[in-house]
Write a structure and sequence with these properties.
The complex is a heterodimer of chains A (1000) and B (416).
Chain A (H helix, E strand, L loop, with lengths): L13 E10 L2 E7 L3 H7 L6 E2 L6 E2 L12 E4 L6 E5 L9 E5 L10 H9 L7 H4 L8 H10 L15 E13 L3 H12 L4 E4 L15 E2 L2 E2 H14 L3 E4 L2 E7 L3 E7 L14 E13 L3 E3 L12 E3 H11 L6 E6 L3 H11 L3 E7 L7 H8 L4 E3 L1 E7 L6 E6 L12 E4 L2 E5 L2 E3 L2 H5 L5 E3 L4 E3 L7 E3 L9 H15 L38 E3 L4 E2 H9 L5 H8 L12 H12 L3 H4 L11 E2 H5 L16 H6 L3 E5 L2 E6 L7 H14 L2 E4 L4 E6 L3 H8 L11 E8 L5 E11 L2 E6 L4 H15 L6 E4 L4 E7 L3 H8 L15 E6 L2 E6 L8 E7 L3 H12 L5 E2 L2 H10 L49 E8 L11 E3 L10 E11 L4 E9 L8 E5 L5 E7 L14
Helix pairs in contact in A: 5-6, 5-11, 7-8, 8-9, 12-13, 12-14, 18-23, 21-22
Chain B lengths: L5 H8 L18 E7 L3 H14 L4 E4 L15 E2 L6 H15 L1 H5 L10 E5 L2 H16 L5 E4 H7 L15 E5 L3 E2 L2 H14 L3 E3 L4 E7 L2 E7 L2 E10 L5 H7 L7 E10 L9 E4 L4 E5 L5 E7 L11 H14 L7 E12 L6 E4 L5 E5 L9 H14 L13 H4 L14
Parallel strand pairs in B: 1-2, 1-11, 2-8, 4-13, 11-18
Antiparallel strand pairs in B: 3-7, 4-6, 5-6, 9-10, 10-11, 12-15, 12-16, 13-14, 14-15, 17-18
Classes of the chains: A alpha+beta (1000), B alpha/beta (416).
Amino acid sequence: MSQPNRLSVGGRIDRSKPIEFSFNKRSYEGYAGDTLASALLANGVNLVGRSFKYSRPRGIMGHGAEEANALMQLGQGAVTVPNPKATQVELYSGMVATSTNGWPSVEFDLMAWLGKLGGPFMPPGFYYKTFMFPQAWWLRYEKFIRKAAGFGHISQQPDPDIYDKLNHYCDVMVIGAGPAGISAALEAGRNGKRVILADEQCELGGSLLASQQNINGASASDWLGTAVTELASMANVVLLSRTTVFGYYDHNFLAALEQRTDHLGPTAVKGTRQRLHRIRAKAVVLATGAIERPLVFGNNDLPGVMLAQSVSAYINRYAVVPGERALIMTSNDSGYQAALDIQSAGRTVVAVVDCRYHAEGRLAQMARAAGIEVITGHGVIEACGSHSVTGAVIAPLDQAGDQITGAQRSVSCDLIAMAGGWSPVVHLSCHTGSRPVWDEQLIGFVPGPNVQQQYCAGAVVGHYTLAHALSGGAAVGAEAAGAKVPEIHFDCGDETEAQAQALFLIPHSKSVSRAPKQFVDFQNDVTAAGIELAIREGYESIEHIKRYTAMGFGTDQGKTANVNGVAIAAKALHQSIQATGTTIFRPAYTPVTFGALAGRDVGSLFDPARYTATHQWHVAQGAKFENVGQWKRPWYFPKAGETMQQTLNRECLAVRNSVGIMDASTLGKIDIQGTDAREFLNRIYTNDWSNLKPGKCRYGLMLKEDGMVFDDGVTTCLSENHFLMTTTTGGAAEVLAWLELWQQTEWPELEVYFTSVTDHWVTYSLVGPNSRKVLEQLCNDVDLSAEAFKFMDYKAGTVAGIPARICRISFTGELSFEVNVPANQGHFVWQQIIAAGEAYDITPYGTESMHILRAEKGYIIVGQDTDGSLTPQDCGMDWIVSKTKAFSFIGQRSLHRSDTARSDRKQLVGLKPKDPAAIIPEGSQIVMDPNQQIPMDMVGHVTSSYWSVCLDHGIAMGTVKAGFSRMGETVYCPLVDGRTLAAEICSPVFYDPNGERHHD
Amino acid sequence: MERYSGFSLFKHAFSHHENWQKAWHSPAPKPSYDVVIVGGGGHGLATAYYLAKQHGITRVAVLEKGYLGGGNTGRNTTIVRSNYLWDEAARLYDHSLSLWQGLSQELNYNVMFSQRGVLNVGHNLQDMRDIERRVNANRLNGIDAEVLDTKAVKELVPIINDSPNIRYPVHGASWQASGGVARHDAVAWGYARAANSLGVDLIQQCEVTGIRRQAGAVVGVETNLGFIAAAKVACVVAGSSGVMAAHADIRLPLESYPLQALVSEPIKPVLDTVVMSNAVHAYVSQSDKGDLVIGAGIDTYNGYGQRGSFQIIEHTVSAICELFPVFSRVRMNRSWGGVVDISPDACPIISKTMIKGLYFNCGWGTGGFKATPGSGHVFAHTIAKDQAHPIAAPFNLDRFNTGHLIDEHGAAAVAH
């Protein structure tokens, strides 16, 4: 397998390690050290994709993150990755890559005909102007539009890889390991600071990796080797290669993606594929370099038109010359470097076309001396070829580069290297909110004012010579470390450069709108004509231009497109580039794998489930579980052959007739201590806590500021300044945050402390007429008799020998004891209770029976019967609202607002189905007139509804407008299946209305 | 105004698109207007359009401190639906949905309103109770809505993770087939072009720095381009509402928060509908370009910066990967932020104020885009008649005094 474009010597590839790979189902060979792009170019493959809108053939134009065209489908099956740029993919053995577009093949693409024929009718924004008639057809049109959507595809199989995250802190974060970054890291490191140096490439070095210059007498490569060795030897320096800092956030927080195994194969054999680094830095050094700009001319998107710097990089770093006969188009001296490199590689330089009238910089002189033809005052106005470059048309330009001044002529070539000047990589700086500033001298945007502790060095601030990058890097490295700037001299033999020309769009003999397409944004097929059209149509803000034409919206975020686009827009608007401004660069600098952003927070760790201490017992009993908040709660305990309703009936009857047990450990528990604990409760709850004695429990209701019920639960007074609050299972965290919010922001003078103890205690409700008899067997140090242990009493003692907090509270209306023991002993105590209860056929029950039992008593479940729009009065609980509290309580004022105080609000009532066998579906809406046409007047809805085996009919709770004054009236629930169920408004207390049972 | 059509495109192709007219003009402000609308987002532009179209009030200026549609109009995830729980909200959003349906034709600008359906997924028993309740309410309000079980959800979205053993299993969903997405920028531009053609002045780069009043009534606004007189000033400035109200010495019950969104790289179509899950904070659809468009929950601090915290992005993407494990190898292309103004009941304020001639339309929180046409329509009526449109009436400012709240965020399954 030949590599026709591979040089026999040079480069940083390893010729002793050939690597086989396939592209579009053909096999090729490259070498270790190649990227997919360099390997393809080595093999003479340059048609790698089709453009998004017009399906034009596209080749590799760059050599790094700036690449706009060469998007790949990498790998197959579960591990396939859509859209990586071939220039950023390190070659590995057995790599399978394909183009993302082109049918039947990328060489012969039928869509291209549509692009060619339809192109004239598809200017920017054409879809806003058509596909409107008939109205109903948009979805049909869209179906076809979506057929052309997207680049790569995803696998339908789960991702076999894992991803993780690492948090770092450092003194100096250096981003970019080119000459400036390395120099900065060296200085900061030598000053003993904790330094992280990150670079997106596989090797540290940046432009040094392809540099032919010397540094203080050593080759760039040797200097780099020494510097990296020194950095690696410092314990205070962390070196991260293959790590792209993609986002720069407030307070010097940075996010970086490390590709740990992507260079080894499509999936990680062991360990993590990628790692997200979350870094907080005291100081940040941006040494992010600069990207060469393309020039905008006709058909500049043909395969074979490349960035000049990229051509040099392929030659010097990868030993690949991507053409036989090269034409250079430049507006500055750096294009000559590519010419010299191509010639040194033994290929032909047809000419260097320089738009400047005078090209007298050192590199230009060297090129001339090497016998390279230099054509000044000219421009390449058009590239020629159908699937790749076969030639170019050049023409003389006026001094300003605005128009053609003479006859054009054609030259033959297969490579056009374009050098349109440099665009500093200001992206990360923009993430912080700083807007870049146009520098007329540099002809580029540089970072705007720093908004946090940030320094810049090297090409990102226009320090383009190697010596300047090195010295500037050393200076900011020291500065960022708070050290004195060292006196280091770098002698790199940098050639003095002549002033570049600000040329962006090379004029054509035809007007922009009629010339061959002059591409600005290659990936999104945005042309100079498109930008001018947008402006013609009034889309004058650069943001409008971006959004109308899609310029900069691609996966390259316009790294090569934006400055040219801004300049072309500025010219069309007759205003300065600074006034035109840029769009806002956003994270991510380069795309970031979703899996890496998610890290380990997926699957069972997405939101870790919480299990009670007795969970395994429930599982063993065959319990069905319900997710409540983060908890797994037993929902019901079916026995073999039972329907769910049969289970519920059995569980409810056991509670009402003998004894049941429920694991209520998931209820939120907040330990509240302090001399002002009582006062705090007074302010948080609606009722009065002034007189609650130690050893007593009380039910409380808390409201939001708007007077609406927010949470409820029983709070126990353990001692004078010590309370234990219980909350709903799902509301526990929110309640704790609520308490802290009020204490910390409004009442810091109150001495009160909150501690979540939900996980520390288990809570078992022993419920039913035989509950006392069961507990008595296990508890010999507490008098459990009705006289000694009254309803709403709390006593400390032991249960099964374990220290316990026992309360007599009831959520079912039955005699019940709530046993709290430390969670570690929970399972043991549960088993003891079950054993003790055997004689009474003790029956474990779950949340569903608990819901039924409490609904029979009309007790609310916050979040089910309430929805943030009901006051205590709406719930029929005015009795719990104190009218006499000295200080007030949260929500009190709102209860007196005119609407909140209305007597005809939606009120929580009981509903008894007219058909006793009916269970009205929860969530049914309630109307008074079942025959009304839609839209119907809804007066409320059913919040809870069950079959009550104890009462032998369906029961429900619901809200009804003015429900309290409508007792006995009939309401209707029109169901989705067409039935309408009637129900009678009644008291929500269906069972034991006088509350005699729980006082036993 | 030249009509847009396939034919006009065809015709202009022959002159290389050199003769298209401006979609709108950018004039200098006149000294005075009948109505000044502060804020050139979708809602403000729609308001201007309906003022001119429905009420014949054409001496109208829209003042925009940046560029048209550059605020939340151009930053949202473009979801349109009307399956709101409470009657007042349902009427407002459904009014909007009905206007969406003919909007491209009415504006002669394709806003690409694509009724590909919206799923609100439920993950536990209470979610499903809330979904049942909301769907029943929608149905009896004449809004199309259905409860789907897991199997039906899977049929609509084959790539969704329907395993019962995941942390947040898909128990079912509500389905509004008439919901969908629209091209957000096009909505602003379409309204701008149509309003401009009716005589409305669109003035960009014009920042209002004061609201001038005399004897308790508005007389105009101070701007960086000088004083502009107007008997009526209507503020539609979303996250900046509190700042604007302060110019008139009013405090609004609003808090501004950053809200972020993100897109993936474009991939071949795999998701035809909008999928929303409140429980895990994941809202996703796929655009016609192929991007997965993903909305996050708000950052929990107040602020006016149009960017947010990274951990919100991390959490959102975790949630997306939880619902759609096949997205794990997709890559995030770009994330960004906007500033949303959230009211205590998570419902908008469309209201007159205690100052004569001063109107506010704000408090849309995280869900204003879908309401753009309806919001503009009822607000224009409110301004023109100096009396609330019946649909807007419940959304008055006074409800925070009376307590007559429309508590949409209390209805837990409804996203905002």
